[in-house]
Amino acid sequence: xxxxxxxxxxxxxxxxxxxxxxxxxxxxxxxxxxxxxxxxxxxxxxxxxxxxxxxxxxxxxxxxxxxxxxxxxxxxxxxxxxxxxxxxxxxxxxxxxxxxxxxxxxxxxxxxxxxxxxxxxxxxxxxxxxxxxxxxxxxxxxxxxxxxxxxxxxxxxxxxxxxxx
Length: 165
Fold this sequence. Notes:
This protein is 25% helix and 20% strand. It is an alpha+beta fold and 165 residues long.
């Protein structure tokens, strides 16, 4: 924190104290690494929480056995998004608190079909997003999506109905 920012922080704290208010405590900034459930031999975490931010690893359209769902890009995208929802829910966040996504596609020609499913998971707002083509994804997947979300102090947005929007 530079000197000007420190002075502003100190002045704000003093004003809040004089007004009878205590400033909110700073969230802990030490990273919390959330292990992958199931296959712990994978060399990454399911998510990492730093303060109020939750950084998810890329998710694939795998079912509870770890196999890719069948049927192509749309079922795979739907399962990918449900897997993202599960990681968010397990870590104090939700789909309505996602602020950024990165979509990786094995074939950019499937962008439209992926997008038709993707948008149904964000009925109230669209997070910032990047999309890119990849020459290959793990397990031969058609799509992989990673997200960044705000955690803690959960918002209670409605869950979208499949196929809505």
